[in-house]
């Protein structure tokens, strides 16, 4: 005699339905992702152009009425390696939130850096508080002769060959802001000649 097949229980039916629903949801999400990629092909490229570097994360305290309030401060630099760079500071109770706030702040304070090949147009000094930094053009193949926060800023800006000297305080935040200040002060040959009221040939003579 043939054995009678038992009907699946209600629990088994629910499990099968849940698995099937999960598969359908994954297929739907996959189709939605592919559709967005087709509609906006430049979206992923734009996101990949920007690079983020964490310069410093430290725990800070604030004295309030009930005692001390602990939080984290993150110094983050953002750049595209093509002459745009910015630095931001974020504070939050969690490290991840502080970094995210720092990235948003950095994107709001972008500066444009004029480049001559892989180096900067001329020597410049940048300052912030008690920190001061000297940036000097270098021959191709020299590399980025800088350390710490200054190196991160220069690499994100797309500077491949440069000499630098840190003067005064070496606090990471001040050094980073001094580097950005120096890059923001840079001028191209055309801009410098226009400010002096002469031609580029006369300026380089």
What does this structure look like?
- This protein has 205 residues and is α+β, with helices and mostly antiparallel strands.
- The chain has a domain at 49-189: 2-Layer Sandwich (Ribosomal Protein S5, domain 2).
- Helices cover 43% and strands 29% of the residues.
- The strands form two sheets. It has a four-stranded antiparallel β-sheet with strand order 1-2-3-4. Strands 5-6-8-7 form a four-stranded mixed β-sheet.
- The longest helix has 30 residues, at 10-39.
Question: Which secondary structure elements does this structure contain, and how are they paired or packed?
Answer:
Blueprint: H1 10-39, H2 42-49, E1 51-64, E2 67-79, E3 84-92, H3 95-108, E4 111-112, E5 124-128, E6 131-137, E7 144-145, H4 148-157, E8 162-168, H5 172-185, H6 189-196, H7 200-204
Parallel strand pairs: 7-8
Antiparallel strand pairs: 1-2, 2-3, 3-4, 5-6, 6-8
Helix pairs in contact: 4-5
């Amino acid at each position: 005699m043939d054995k009678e097949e038992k009907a699946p229980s209600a629990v088994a039916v629910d499990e099968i339905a849940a698995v099937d629903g999960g598969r359908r949801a994954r297929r739907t999400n996959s189709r939605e992702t592919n559709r967005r990629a087709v509609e906006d092909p430049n979206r992923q490229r734009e996101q990949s152009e920007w690079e983020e570097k964490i310069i410093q994360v430290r725990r800070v305290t604030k004295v309030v009425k009930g005692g001390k309030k602990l939080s984290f401060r993150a110094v983050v630099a953002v750049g595209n390696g093509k002459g745009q760079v910015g630095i931001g500071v974020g504070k939050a109770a969690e490290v991840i939130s502080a970094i995210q706030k720092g990235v948003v702040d950095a994107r709001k304070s972008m500066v444009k850096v004029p480049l001559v090949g892989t180096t900067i147009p001329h020597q410049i000094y940048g300052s912030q508080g008690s920190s001061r930094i000297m940036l000097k053009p270098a021959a191709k193949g020299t590399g980025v002769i800088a350390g710490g926060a200054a190196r991160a800023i220069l690499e994100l800006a797309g500077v491949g060959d440069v000499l630098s000297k840190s003067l005064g305080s070496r606090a990471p935040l001040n050094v980073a802001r001094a580097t950005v200040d120096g890059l923001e002060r840079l001028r191209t040959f055309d801009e410098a000649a226009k400010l002096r009221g002469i031609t580029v040939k006369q300026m380089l003579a």
